[in-house]
Amino acid sequence: MTPTEIKQNKAAWLEKKLAHAGEKWRKHYTQRVLTAARLAQGELIRIDKLTLQTDFCFGHGWNGISTEEEEDNAAAAEKEIHESERVFTAENTEPAEKMLQQLAGYRPWPHKFQIVVTQDGESHLDWVDAWGWGFADMDKAIEHYSRFGPVSIRELAQEDIPALVAAYRAQKDDITKRCKSYWKRYGGSKLNTWTYLRD
């Protein structure tokens, strides 16, 4: 996704959003939204700027029980993030990376697939998943969203995936660039880190 496409998609998404939310929300969404993925049927899926994380906790053990090795590993991870720009950046890019991995392996199953929900001019993704989280089936999704007004719901198509991948790559590139600037200025000196016993 080129810088021009990032800006154009964000502007198009903002125009639709502010038509319903009002101008008073312009500053909020301008600061929060990075871009939008334009899907094959024209829907715009909002992609937020990731927040630069400077607080990190590293857990050890489970249910109040921890071995010395687990405690040492947590302490080593806490130390490493203060010393390594790579680790700091990896922690901050993790949400975008997870989405990119999910999209790379996305294959709809008969009872588990993503849907594109469009309501009040705004689109987002949700899940139909008969065995886990999400709606049990498409009818349940339609029933749920119809309570809030007219809705259009369709299954996410393979031709939608490249636009989503490009948008999440832009999100990852943006946070990576901000991590680099932060690290150049402060290194790991201002990071707030701690370890804790998981329970």
Q: Topology, pairings included?
A:
Layout: H1 3-21, H2 26-32, E1 33-38, E2 44-48, E3 55-60, H3 68-83, H4 85-104, E4 112-119, E5 122-129, H5 138-146, E6 152-155, H6 161-186, E7 192-197
Parallel strand pairs: 3-7
Antiparallel strand pairs: 1-2, 4-5, 4-6
Give structural notes.
It is a single chain. It is built from 6 helices and 7 strands. The chain is an alpha+beta fold and 199 residues long. A 3-stranded antiparallel β-sheet has the order 5-4-6. Strands 1-2 form a two-stranded antiparallel sheet. A two-stranded parallel sheet has the order 3-7. Helix 3 crosses helix 4.
What key phrases describe this protein's structure?
single chain; 199 residues; alpha+beta; three-stranded antiparallel beta sheet; two-stranded antiparallel ribbon; 6 helices; 49% helix; 22% strand
Number of helices: 6
What are the low-pLDDT stretches, counting only 5+ consecutive residues below 50?
Answer: none
Q: Helix content range of the residues, please?
A: 40-55%
Main sheet: which strands, in order across? Answer: 5-4-6
Q: Round the Cα radius of gyration to an integer and report it.
A: 20 Å
Shape: globular
Query: Could you describe the largest sheet, including whether it forms a barrel?
Result: 3 strands, antiparallel
Structure, briefly:
Helix content is 49%, strand content 22%.
